[in-house]
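Entry 12.
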Amino acid sequence: MITRGIGVGLFWGFIPMPFQMAGVMATTPFLRFNAPIALLTVWLSNPFTYGPLWYLEYITGNLILGREGLQGIELTMEWFKAHWDDIVVPLYVGTAFYSIVVSYLVYLLLNWLWVRSAHHEWHIIRRRQKPGNRPNNPPKEEPHAHP
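Predicted 3D structure (tokens):
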């Protein structure tokens, strides 16, 4: 449930949209997952990471689409309005890649690590429970003969 919560949180966190936490909550009727973990994970994207994350998604989208990308970027509203269509398509293609593929791969990796860790712990506990493998066993006392 925890690893699924991380997967759901990453899925919504990669999507450049407002109210990502509402997206997590809208998923709850359809999937069982740890909602608090998903709500925390969605904060992967935050005001400090928006720019780098969206740029990475834009670059990835251009790579997938086989485009060069825009040159001479200006940080003005006029420039963004003029190039909106050239920005939005690769951005959302890259977003789809990260939201679907990357979040699923992270879920699979974390789930595998979780199961591996649980198996390791189970084997340690089993080893401790075997007779003769308990180091804290007091030595057996021999019965005393009464005089």
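Annotation: The helical segments are 2-13, 20-27, 35-41, 50-65, 77-82, 84-129. The mean pLDDT is 86.
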